[in-house]
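ESCALATION

Customer reports they have been waiting on this structure for their group meeting. Please prioritize. Original submission:
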Amino acid sequence: MRVHKQGYVLWSLDEFPLFHLDVIEALRQPLESGDITVARQEESVTLPARTLLVLAANPCPCGEYSAEPGANHCNCLERVRRDYRRRLSGPIADRIDITRHVAPARGSERDQFRPAESSDVVRDRVAAARERQRTRFAGRSWRLNAQIPSQLLKREWAVSPDAQRLVDLETYHGRLSARGAVRVMRLAWTVADLRSIRTGRDLRPGHAEVVAALQLRNGDPLDLRTIDAELDQQLIDEQSSDGVVTERAG
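Update from on-call: job pushed to the front of the queue and completed.
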């Protein structure tokens, strides 16, 4: 656990499904409200509990399960695997904004996203995105996209109409809960902020940002080249609608 200088906590829980169920369930309210209430007899106290929570888990208790033919060396019973995975579903999963599946490293394979950026470059971009949020929410009681109240998110910081239709469709088909829909739109704002740093334009979340947010939330493969292409086309369309058309070099 690491405490940020502004009071935020980076909390990493390894082998999360092996935690006792009462511990897992106790995380639900703090993750939702950002505070925790401790009660003893007739006294209670509420404390701030804003956190960046990182949960890590193997595909099964022994860690050897693989869906790839010939690569599965798991000796767990199917019932055991099912119970293990169930602990990462339901209310807790609904409060997780980003899910990533990490495959075992193979020395003979190259990382498709190389050349990798340095930590300094990533840190500067994240700091710039957070500064955009601080400026956007000046005078409010919150500072980050993740903290926008849901009603104000829909009224004052709504995503584009086509992006909203995509969120509504995912909700209609049961792939997103009402809570999940709000979290996707907040995450889309962060994607837009990071995109704004790269383009130098003040961008709002559109269809491409919501698609990226859904992929991040669902653990779907994230093809950065495809997302960049869609975001670039979205930018061109916005410029055309403003009466400004630019030609991309190369």
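Sent to customer with the following note: The CA atoms of residues 105 and 123 lie 25 Å apart.
Escalation resolved.
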